[in-house]
């Protein structure tokens, strides 16, 4: 009888998915980006209908993608309304009465996704109280303030204060290896696209300090990293209990939490993240940045003296411990990544030599980055290096391999019904993170080639996460019309609030059925992309994790800003303006204000004004007021600008006006 019940449950889920639906990006569509939706309804055309008036503003033809999609078993058709850019609230209509969820077209349609996915890291903070001011109804008391005791497997006894950092996932453990790729992805987003990730108004405790909140958040994790380093430079692998805690609030999670053995994989992650953080943070706080670099160099001294992976065979949980392991049989990729980041941060020849001697031993860019394989991160750092001594031949090899790999991703996107870049066999635990990381690689390929097929493919990866999938479901809590309500996330379950904490992407479909709930509802005959359920105990499909959220921050943050700086003048000439977030900030006499006029025309002068204004928009100083050609400019905010005026401490803005278009950024001035 039980077997019949399970089969009926599975059939119910399957038939519900196969019923006629229209699958959209439930967060909405950016005004000037490509716009796609999918359907399994037998129709030939579609209409875009305004929500309030009922007027049809756009019509188009549907394209048949697949009659039997390999991942879903569905007939799937695709609609493209990229050319429709009228902002507003709409729905899609097929035939006479089939309609989609309502959605918006807006220049900030992805703003909510970006802010919530980044703020999710704040909600994962360990060791600090989350106050109502920043956390709202999700406020909670400080937790795990007594971390942690040396586990007997370390061969040490006693206690080492290791407070802070992020909870790793749906549990309260903290793992250096998984935190490494998480922090690195956030840092890479800021380093490659600083103008897209310089927001200082996320409403976390550090907001408004003149430092981008994405760096503030990573710094919170960095402080925990530093506490996990041993005096000899090595880094302990993780800090957890011996068994997973029950579904209680973090402050109610009692019992001993242990620091486990040193590992070379954790040490490699530590080096790479702290080296990268150093070069991004040195203009904000040189003292702390130098501390990070010195810690990374100390760790490298230890790592380079180890002849093989430590511990031998890779880290494994000792008997009696059943929390996350993050084991790995090889540390060659972590060593390569550590060397690449140290070279980029120091320019030291020894790190360059190490990278260039080892860069092709495991192949070039032939896989998407994940916690177990960070070789691609090493290659990307070298490919985007600003060091003048890099080997251009190696850089060309890496670029060609990135393009080749991204072409394979595009091919997958073209052959899959929902435009997703994974095939059957790749719907494993955390499949959504691979989709998002694929999106990052496609963005970086577009950055290097300006080929729109990569941009379009990257957009479809985010569309998939936000609702263009067989479940007609946004995989991100608090985003869209239909999203996870029962994620495997202890605070979201234990806080007594019906709505889960927003901004977390869940793991997604898992065809390997790695938990009892998936095994209850699905079987080996279920199409791979359908093996997902919004169930608290489906940790293999519905858990959250920091390394899954980080690429969501990258992809949504890039796409929400892309094209928003494109401005059209009266002569229909397109040109870009870039006003950088300048530091040190708070401003002082060494602060440099940089901006770029990236004209696509030649031999034309633009009327440029650069000024400082107060909160009321009143001009305090005029720094530039003249005509300039395209180029990059820098102005030092020296005492000569305010020698005859008294500038009080407070919030000001520096404002760039090019012809009639104005761009403004916040500055903090302290006397």
How would you characterize this protein structure?
There is one protein chain. The strands form five sheets. Strands 2, 4, 5, 8, 9 and 10 form a six-stranded mixed sheet that branches. Helices cover 34% and strands 16% of the residues. 48% of the residues are buried. Helix 4 runs antiparallel to helix 5 (213-227), helix 4 (176-192) packs parallel to helix 17 (546-561) and helix 5 (213-227) runs antiparallel to helix 6 (264-281). It starts with a helix and ends with a strand. It is α+β, with helices and mostly antiparallel strands and 671 residues long. It contains 17 helices and 22 strands. It has helices spanning 2-18, 111-123, 132-135, 176-192, 213-227, 264-281, 286-304, 332-346, 349-358, 375-383, 392-415, 431-449, 452-465, 490-494, 516-521, 539-542, 546-561, and strands at 22-23, 29-30, 36-39, 45-50, 56-61, 63-66, 76-80, 88-94, 98-99, 103-106, 149-150, 174-175, 238-240, 258-259, 566-568, 574-579, 592-599, 606-613, 619-628, 631-636, 650-658, 661-669.
């Amino acid at each position: 009888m039980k077997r019949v019940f399970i089969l009926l449950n599975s059939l119910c889920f399957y038939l519900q998915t196969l019923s006629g639906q229209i699958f959209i990006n439930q967060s909405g569509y950016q005004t000037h980006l490509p716009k796609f939706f999918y359907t399994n309804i037998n129709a030939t055309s579609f209409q875009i209908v305004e929500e309030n008036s009922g007027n049809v503003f756009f019509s188009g033809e549907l394209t048949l993608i697949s009659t039997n999609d390999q991942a879903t078993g569905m007939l799937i058709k695709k609609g493209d309304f990229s050319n429709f850019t009228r902002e507003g609230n709409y729905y899609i209509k097929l035939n006479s009465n089939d309609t989609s969820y309502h959605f918006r077209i807006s220049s900030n349609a992805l703003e909510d996704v970006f802010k919530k996915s980044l703020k999710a890291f704040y909600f994962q903070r360990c060791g600090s109280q989350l106050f109502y001011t920043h956390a709202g109804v999700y406020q909670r008391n400080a937790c795990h303030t007594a971390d942690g005791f040396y586990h007997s497997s370390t061969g040490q006894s006693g206690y080492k204060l290791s407070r802070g950092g992020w909870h790793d996932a749906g549990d309260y453990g903290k793992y250096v290896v998984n935190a490494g790729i998480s922090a690195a992805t956030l840092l890479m987003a800021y380093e490659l696209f600083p103008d897209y990730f310089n927001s200082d108004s996320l409403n976390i405790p550090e907001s408004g300090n003149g430092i981008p909140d994405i760096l503030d958040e990573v710094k919170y994790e960095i402080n925990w990293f530093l506490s996990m380093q041993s005096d000899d430079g090595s880094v302990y692998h993780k800090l957890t209990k011996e068994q997973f805690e029950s579904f209680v609030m973090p402050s109610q999670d009692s019992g001993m939490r242990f620091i486990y053995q040193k590992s070379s994989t954790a040490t490699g992650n530590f080096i790479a993240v702290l080296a990268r953080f150093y070069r991004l943070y040195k203009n904000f706080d040189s003292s702390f940045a130098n501390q990070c670099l010195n810690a990374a160099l100390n760790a490298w001294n230890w790592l380079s003296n180890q002849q093989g992976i430590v511990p031998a065979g890779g880290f494994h949980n000792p008997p009696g411990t059943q929390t996350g392991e993050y084991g790995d049989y090889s540390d060659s990729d972590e060593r390569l990544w550590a060397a690449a980041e140290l070279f980029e941060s120091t320019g030291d020849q020894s790190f360059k030599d190490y990278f260039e001697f080892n860069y092709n031993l495991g192949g070039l860019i032939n896989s998407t980055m994940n916690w177990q394989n960070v070789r691609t991160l090493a290659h990307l750092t070298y490919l985007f290096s600003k060091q003048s001594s890099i080997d251009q031949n190696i850089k060309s090899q890496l670029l060609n391999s990135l393009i080749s790999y991204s072409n394979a991703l595009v091919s997958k996107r073209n052959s899959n019904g929902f435009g997703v870049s994974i095939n059957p066999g790749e719907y494993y635990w955390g499949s959504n993170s691979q989709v998002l990381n694929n999106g990052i690689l496609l963005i970086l390929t577009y950055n290097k080639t300006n080929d729109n097929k990569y941009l379009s493919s990257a957009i479809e990866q985010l569309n998939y996460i936000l609702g263009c999938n067989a479940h007609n479901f946004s995989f991100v809590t608090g985003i869209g019309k239909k999203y996870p309500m029962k994620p495997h996330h202890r605070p979201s379950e234990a806080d007594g609030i019906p709505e889960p904490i927003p901004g977390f992407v869940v793991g997604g479909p898992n065809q390997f059925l790695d938990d009892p709930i998936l095994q209850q509802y699905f079987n080996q005959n279920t199409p791979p992309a359908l093996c997902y359920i919004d169930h608290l105990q489906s940790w293999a499909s519905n858990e959250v994790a920091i390394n899954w959220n980080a690429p969501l921050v990258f992809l949504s943050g890039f796409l929400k800003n892309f094209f928003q700086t494109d401005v059209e003048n009266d002569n229909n000439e397109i040109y870009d303006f870039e006003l950088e977030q300048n530091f040190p900030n708070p401003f002082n006499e060494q602060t440099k204000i940089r901006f770029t006029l990236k004209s696509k025309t030649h031999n034309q002068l633009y009327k440029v004004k650069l000024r400082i204004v107060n909160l009321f928009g009143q001009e305090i100083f005029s720094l530039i007021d003249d005509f300039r050609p395209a180029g990059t400019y820098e102005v030092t905010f020296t005492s000569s600008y305010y020698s005859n005026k008294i500038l009080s401490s407070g919030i000001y803005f520096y404002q760039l006006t090019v012809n009639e278009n104005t761009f403004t950024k916040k500055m903090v001035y302290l006397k």
